[in-house]
Specification:
The structure holds two protein chains of two kinds. By secondary structure, chain A is mostly helical. Chain A is built from 14 helices and no strands. Chain A is globular. Chain B is flat and about 75 Å long. By secondary structure, chain B is an all-alpha fold. Chain B starts with a helix and ends with a helix. The longest helix of chain B is centred in the first third of the chain and has 35 residues. Classes of the chains: A mainly alpha, B mainly alpha.
């Protein structure tokens, strides 16, 4: 009897688990599917699950919509913002992890609180500053803004990773006559490389998907993929096939990176509070 | 192990030198963040007190609190405030409530669990503009959408969701993005729960509900507070999802504070009025932050 109920709950759990998973994933699945339809197939009613797949939508996205231009912008902005933030954050996190003072805790919490400033509250000054410094609609401008918004998270995440590096190893290096610089670059960085890599990954994902500043600070020249996709929202842009193909291309890299790095992401996104 | 991880403080003469180096390494990040958080804030405050319109240069001079007064007596502003609260609270309830239940579900052993989990968390990695258009066009479009086709298939008349229930639909789209986030975080937290503790509770005759209330929920409290904090930061500034689906409409039916400020500043070029809105947004966020950062700070081992 006990075994029987156990078995039926197991079946129920399996059905529920898979049912919810498929339901939540369905829009993404449908997007991928629609990308392989022609525009006519994409708007057939009722929608077709089985059809002759075509690459025509992808071909048009590559040819006409200058997809590569937007991808290039996204890559430049994300990588630029990430590298910049790491260069600022690694020394800061090193200092807080290995040379803590009374103010370290306060500094960390203050950094966290700057993250609470809603971007929309400073939209006007940032927009006007970008305009007067000719950084509006440039990759540099958007990269700087992305770097600054993510800096607190990156410092936090590096801090939690650095704290796991045993201090005696660093001290041993110093005994052997290593300078602070050598200690940081030759002892700490190799040891903390996995942590730095997952921090960089989180930053890349956040920059890649960033939409608020991308939509407000760029128009055509520096528009990243988020803004490019938004251009499909115009009523005359009801091209489901092309929208789906372009969206699939824009989402795929981050989806794969996200799947691979789930565990590290949890840690980064929760400031190390959940591991 | 714990002893190894503990850091011995620098001692003696090298202490002062260490302090200086520490400060030197820390200062670039701190200074740049200080500038980043104070300069725009000061500018927003200043703009909110003057008459400043980007396309009407005749309008200038000190305005006092008239920008605020104009905003606070504008019904659109009050609606946008209400919509902001509805969106934040609604999405939080759906994502944290649903996320807790799903975290427990995906903690159970079942066939293909790993793949199911990956499918569940996927929407979180989809960029906001894609997920908004995906729902608007492919799922909910009154003629071509999959959901409309399903409704027709069972004999119902399809609903134009974004026109009839704009705010609710935006809430559902945003929840679709953030529920997976909550699952991702809470599932990790559930998995760190000691299985022996659960076993012991079961031995003592605790039913599933008692186990949930007295063991799982207390264990999750910290993760939940972190999820609430992070989601609140993002949800206060929902923008892309509204911009590409309803553009705040019809009327102001789906305009939140973020979208209102955007439209005042970059569509009506009213810098003064938009800045007053910005200041109010910052005040609201800070009130929320005061509670949230404090509850998180209590849970952090720094």
């Amino acid at each position: 009897m006990a075994i029987k109920t156990k078995r039926s709950t197991k079946i129920a759990v399996t059905c529920l688990g898979w049912g919810i998973a498929l339901w939540l994933f369905f829009p993404i699945f449908w997007m991928i599917l629609t990308g392989f339809k022609s525009e006519v197939q994409a708007v057939s009613t009722p929608p077709k699950l089985i059809f002759a797949p075509t690459l025509s939508s992808y071909a048009e996205v590559f040819e006409r919509a200058s997809y590569w231009h937007f991808t290039f912008n996204t890559v430049i902005i994300s990588v630029g913002a990430t590298v910049g933030a790491l260069l600022l954050a690694i020394p800061a996190a090193y200092s807080m992890a290995f040379m803590p003072s009374k103010r370290t805790r306060g500094t960390l919490l203050w950094m966290l609180s700057t993250r609470m400033l809603p971007p929309v509250g400073v939209l006007v000054p940032i927009y006007l500053l970008a305009r007067s410094t000719h950084l509006l609609d440039t990759c540099t401008g958007l990269a700087i803004v992305n770097m600054l918004t993510n800096l607190p998270i990156i410092v936090w995440m590096l801090f939690t990773f650095f704290r796991e590096v045993p201090a005696p190893i660093l001290e041993a290096g110093r005994m052997d006559g290593a300078t602070r610089w050598q200690e940081m670059t030759m002892v700490l960085l190799p040891l903390a490389l996995p942590g730095i890599a997952s921090t960089a990954l989180l930053s890349l994902i956040l920059c890649w998907n960033e939409a608020f500043w991308s939509l407000n600070l760029t128009s055509s020249n520096a528009a990243p993929l988020t803004a490019f996709i938004a251009s499909f929202s115009s009523p005359e842009g009801l091209f489901f096939g092309k929208l789906s193909a372009a969206s699939t291309l824009a989402v795929a890299p981050i989806l794969v990176l996200g799947w691979i790095s789930q565990k590290q992401l949890v840690r980064g996104l929760t400031f190390g509070a959940v591991k | 192990m714990q002893a190894v991880l503990e850091h011995s403080a620098p001692k003696g003469a090298s202490e002062r030198k260490g302090k200086r180096t520490g400060l030197l390494l820390l200062s670039p990040a701190v200074l740049i963040l200080l500038v980043w958080s104070l300069v725009p804030l000061a500018m927003t405050l200043w703009y909110s007190l003057i008459n400043y319109n980007l396309i009407d240069p005749t309008l200038h001079g000190f305005a006092g609190f008239s920008n605020y007064w104009y905003l606070l007596t504008d019904p659109d502003f009050l609606y946008s405030l209400l919509h902001t609260v509805i969106l934040v609270v609604g999405v939080l309830i759906i994502s944290v409530g649903g996320g807790t239940l799903l975290a427990i579900l995906y903690d159970q052993e079942f066939f293909g669990r790993g793949i199911a989990r990956v499918l569940v968390i996927s929407p979180f990695f989809v960029m906001p503009t894609v997920s908004a258009l995906l729902w608007k066009n492919l799922m909910l479009h009154p003629i071509y959408g999959v959901y409309s086709a399903m409704m027709r298939a069972v004999g119902l008349t399809p609903i134009d969701w974004l026109a009839r229930f704009p705010l609710l639909t935006v809430m559902m789209i945003v929840s679709w993005e953030w529920l997976p986030f909550a699952v991702l975080i809470l599932l990790t937290a559930v998995q760190s729960l000691d299985s022996e503790q659960k076993e012991a509770a079961r031995m003592d005759g605790a039913g599933p509900i008692a186990q949930f209330r007295h063991i799982i929920l207390p264990h999750l409290s910290r993760a939940i507070s972190v999820v609430v904090m992070i989601e609140t930061i993002y949800l206060l500034t929902i923008f892309a999802e509204i911009s590409v689906t309803t553009a705040g409409g019809p009327g102001v039916a789906s305009t939140n504070l973020a979208y209102l400020i955007y439209s005042r500043a970059l569509l009506q070029f009213d810098v003064g009025g938009a800045s007053a809105g910005g200041v109010l947004a910052i005040i609201i966020a800070n009130v929320a932050a005061m509670f949230l950062v404090r509850s998180v700070a209590r849970n952090l081992e720094v």
